[in-house]
Description:
Layout: H1 2-31, H2 38-54, H3 58-76, H4 83-101, H5 113-124, H6 169-186, H7 189-214, H8 217-229, H9 234-288, E1 289-291, H10 293-296, H11 299-309, E2 314-319, E3 324-326, H12 327-348, H13 352-357, E4 364-373, E5 376-383, H14 390-399, H15 411-416, H16 438-448, E6 452-457, E7 463-470, E8 474-483, E9 492-497, E10 501-507, E11 512-515, E12 518-525, E13 528-536, H17 537-540, E14 555-562, E15 565-571, E16 573-582, E17 595-600, E18 606-610, H18 612-619, E19 642-646, H19 650-662, E20 666-670, H20 673-683, E21 689-692, H21 701-710, E22 719-723, H22 728-736, E23 741-744, H23 750-760
Parallel strand pairs: 2-4, 9-18, 13-15, 19-20, 19-21, 21-22, 22-23
Antiparallel strand pairs: 1-3, 4-5, 5-7, 6-7, 8-9, 8-16, 10-14, 11-12, 12-13, 14-15, 17-18
Helix pairs in contact: 1-2, 1-4, 1-19, 2-3, 3-4, 3-5, 4-5, 6-9, 7-9, 8-9, 11-12, 12-16, 20-21
Enzyme class: transferase
Protein name: Chemotaxis protein CheA
EC number: 2.7.13.3
Amino acid sequence: MDDIRQLLLAAFDAEHREHLAAIRAALAEAEAGRHADWNDVFRRAHSLKGAARAVDLPAVEEVAHRLEALFDRVVQGRAGLDRATAGVVDLALDRIEGLVAGLPGNPEPEAPGDAIAALDACLSGAPIPQAKPGPAREPSPEPEPAAPRASDPAPPAHEAGIAYLRIASDQVEELSKAVHDLGAVLQGQEVVGAAVAGLESGARALRRSVDTVQGRTGEMVALARRLREAGDPAGAALDGFVDRVRRLDGDLRGVIRGISGLARVQSRSTGAVETALRRLRDDADRLLLVPAETVFGGYGRMVREIAREAGLPVEVRLHGLDLQVDRGLLQALKDPVLHALRNTISHGAESADARRNAGKPEALSVTLSVASKGSRLVVTVRDDGRGPDLARILETGRRQGLVPERAEPTPHEILDLVFAPGFSTAAAIDRIAGRGMGLSVVAEAARALRGQASLRPAEPHGTEVAITVPLSAARQPVLLVEASLRPGEAPQTFGLPSGAVAGLLRLSDRDLASVAGEPAARIKQGGRDVIVPLVPLASLLGSGVAPLPLHDGLVRAVLLRCGASLCAVAVDRLRDVRVLLVGPAPPLGGDPALMSGTVMLADETPSLVLDPDGLCARARVGGLVAAAPVAAPERRTRRVPTVLVVDDSITTRTLEKSILEAHGYRVFVCVDGQDALDRLRRDGPEVDLVVADVEMPRLDGFGLLQAVKADPGLTRLPVILMTSRGDPADIRRGLDLGADAYITKQKFDQRELLDTIGQLL
């Protein structure tokens, strides 16, 4: 049961971040005077409440319930969302984020009193109480006179209650390397297994030969009898030979049984060792590689708390925090990024009149982005504030002796001055600015990591600080693929940074399209059909025009994300994702625009890691595909009943999927009614029953049910509605539309769901 709860909490962690980000994005749209989809915001608050109930987090459920009520009033037009109310929503979202972040140390948190009181005041029309600074905030002490070492950051405050064991990073590296070396050694077991299998095959061939001889023993026995009757001594000798053949047959049967038993034991042992090794390898790699969220995830809340204390409205956006990065690299960037974010408040904030006159929204916008670009990690902090004042920076540089009196530096050289130790344009020292240590810490950390820091004006307003460091000599998740560069050649293994991989595709003939004479793939992206270019990897790597590789009637491809665009690269085989030590790209032997590094595989074979941006740029050239394959899609034989689970909550989908799979069902999942209807119209014969929520975007459960019952090919498909809407009118409506069963989530019992499915199937 603990494993199930951990799985659900992991799903809830991802889901709640998605909902909070969407609600914050809607608030930002409304703040900027643009249209915000309040129906979607209301639905997300509703889904968040239901998901919190599913994982038994009443503190989050209480806050989400009040947010749902508030957004319902906005949807109905009975309440507006002024700046004060938006601030209360921001506070509530921060508190939810803090509650979830603190679950490892406090699995049963109490509801946040300040957020509850502020939301109740909004709902009742009472004055909104002043919020207290949140306890989960990252620390924001004044900088020390000496800059902290980038390689030795302080642990965050919220880790104080957790026991940690300090281990040198090189020891963890050695452990990970030893595990991977063990994997290479154990690959020798495959040779032993092959030898045992060969021995078993040889013994069975010998047995067949003996069977052939054994089949003629009847003739030998008759001949031996005639020879004995004739007084010929050869008859006795022939009888002895027949006896030996029979004994040999029995002995050989025993040998084959022994070899077969050995083969089974060896196979089970090898499988167990491989499973244990894979688990050990994954655990060892996880010590070194973590999502950027683990280090930077709390910074959005921290910036909002600093701004709240200063009485400044602020909108914070975090992008790319799901990127997997070496733990040591993230920790080395922890303090520099913190200083850069604090700098946006101390130097980017403007008065409300100044922002209004510049045509900006009232709230300062701060964005933290983490991205992998080729072989480099880029962390960007951007704001839409006042922007760098070149004249003031130059004046300060002259006053501090950093610029000779008559020198006329370029704008780029002027902006570089801000990274000098002790440099500050702040008029006075306060809690977050004035000592001149912030951006110098950023520059020193970047240099220590063999990278660089830059500051430049952002378009159309504000400042952008970028920290760029190499990913070389850091462990990264790498997707391994195989591709034959020329016909008849053995396939080669290549790596792709998994952070740039948007998905893995197995394309049948119906998924292929043609755009301007070039092959393309038809995929689902963001709930809609999207056409993306499809190019063989062999063509991109300079092997000339090549056909799309076709195996078992399918084209296998990697969907790469290149900025805002997508590109599908066809390969011969998709292997797996491995966390590997990525070294620099070779100086010779290939196009540097297509290579970002090298890795050493388990068998000590080097492999190139390709640059996704370079591949996408090459794919845009076109004319790289010889011919598009045509193959009939293969139908998959259904061995067990298949249930389609339809729910916009990932937590609920995970819960229902886990329950059904644990009881032997095959499970498909869809995120809303339209997604489910598309799936049913495409793969309807594979689905035996549908379990659907009612409250969903695009097409709700009632609409899905109505469409299913109106489709002649789907009308006999059983549909169960399982929803939090327990009103008798809703139940009657669902049953009138043709639902085979209606289950309410408030009294959800998995036995009831399983019994209902069992009866319908």
